[in-house]
Amino acid sequence: MKRFWLLFSQSVTVLLAAYFVVGTLKPGWLPQRGAGGAVAVLEAPATNALVAPAGSFRLAAQKSSAAVVSINTSKNARRSPQQMDPWFKFFFGEQPREPQVGLGSGVIVSADGYILTNNHVVEGADEIEVVLNDSRRTAAKVIGTDPDSDLAVLKISLDRLPVIVLGNSSSLQVGDQVLAIGNPFGVGQTVTSGIVSALGRNQLGINTFENFIQTDAAINPGNSGGALVDINGNLLGINTAIYSRSGGSMGIGFAIPVSTAKMVLEGIVSDGQVTRGWIGVEPNELTPELAQTFGVAADQGVIITGVLQDGPAAKGGMKPGDVVTGVAGQAVHNVSELLSSVAALKPGVNAAFEVQRPQGAATLQVAPGVRPRPRQTVE
């Protein structure tokens, strides 16, 4: 009997020791019971809102999304006196009389109420309403537009405005992570993520001056004018266009770099317009046929097929047949790059143009003029 109790006490001691070890090292292995005998479920501790989980873009989205707004536009139906003509109605049908509405996005870039968006979002609009992320609504005024870059500057009059921080688009590299923020299809503010797919995209036929950031972050109709931000929530570009066969995102979106947007913003706010350089030439893509026609041995650059008489280029000594290979120290490979490089020059200040001629290479000093503004269509 004594031996039995000794064996029993040793077994209990071992079991209690095992229970203590498991309860200390692996408490999840034991059933947890709360008040009333109910099994208590183990829950993860509450996450600090200021500390994002690994791999999360929460903080970047929170930092930037408040400064991204929705833009609702309305364009009154244009009525022609001919619309009352029965023959006009017979051939062209009843013309719509309801106002046309549009949808886009914008980014608040100043506590004074300045907003950057796309020109095509507000072009021709009679009324513009801005809806903030905190649900405030207000009318907006167009301060200026720049169709050549498809940018526009609006202004609203509200207090306590959230302002986005401008980033450095020049430091971007292919593969960098980015977020696109806007109001696609009017469903409400949406954040999508992706990477920088390419830089310096041009010759797309979208704008006069093209230097797009390409991204695979989902961009859809309604995102135009919204923000492309880095993982710190800083503005890198203004979402502008997509390549799509269906009308929806196919992973190819384009944004205007913030460096271009900042130049346009400063020009419109300070001068009411964007001042760009202009030299008065007719540039063409360099082809073997054109090179042979002008007798120049060059395989890279832009060939000049026409020079405006008494224009800035002519005064600087540029001639038809010159192949421009560099502007102000920057290499030039195509017409789009030449236009962008010249547009960035300060009017009236000499800039070095590297050219290739039949006689060899030469450097010309050309003082750009002010690029003429596009003619406005009168309705």
Question: Any descriptors?
Answer:
379 residues, alpha+beta, Thrombin, subunit H, Pdz3 Domain, seven-stranded antiparallel beta sheet, 8 helices, 21 strands
Number of strands: 21
Query: According to CATH, what is the class of the largest domain?
Result: Mainly Beta
Strand content: 25-35%
Mean pLDDT, to the nearest integer, reads 83
Could you give the order of strands across the largest sheet? 5-4-1-2-3-7-6
Tally of helical runs: 8
The figure for the number of domains is: 3
Helix and strand layout, with pairings?
Blueprint: H1 2-25, H2 58-65, E1 68-75, H3 86-92, E2 100-108, E3 114-118, H4 119-122, E4 127-131, E5 137-139, E6 141-146, E7 151-155, E8 177-182, E9 190-201, E10 212-215, E11 227-229, E12 235-242, E13 253-257, H5 258-271, E14 277-278, E15 281-285, H6 288-294, E16 302-307, H7 312-315, E17 323-327, E18 330-331, H8 335-343, E19 351-357, E20 360-366, E21 369-370
Antiparallel strand pairs: 1-2, 1-4, 2-3, 3-7, 4-5, 6-7, 8-9, 8-11, 9-10, 10-13, 11-12, 12-13, 14-21, 15-16, 16-17, 17-18, 17-19, 19-20
Could you explain how this protein is built, in words?
This protein has 379 residues and is an alpha+beta fold. The protein folds into 3 domains: 60-155, Beta Barrel (Thrombin, subunit H); 169-271, Beta Barrel (Thrombin, subunit H); 277-370, Roll (Pdz3 Domain). The chain is built from 8 helices and 21 strands. The chain has helices at 2-25, 58-65, 86-92, 119-122, 258-271, 288-294, 312-315, 335-343; strands at 68-75, 100-108, 114-118, 127-131, 137-139, 141-146, 151-155, 177-182, 190-201, 212-215, 227-229, 235-242, 253-257, 277-278, 281-285, 302-307, 323-327, 330-331, 351-357, 360-366, 369-370. The strands form 4 sheets. Strands 5-4-1-2-3-7-6 form a 7-stranded antiparallel sheet. The longest helix has 24 residues, at 2-25. The radius of gyration is 31 Å and the shape is extended. The mean pLDDT is 83.
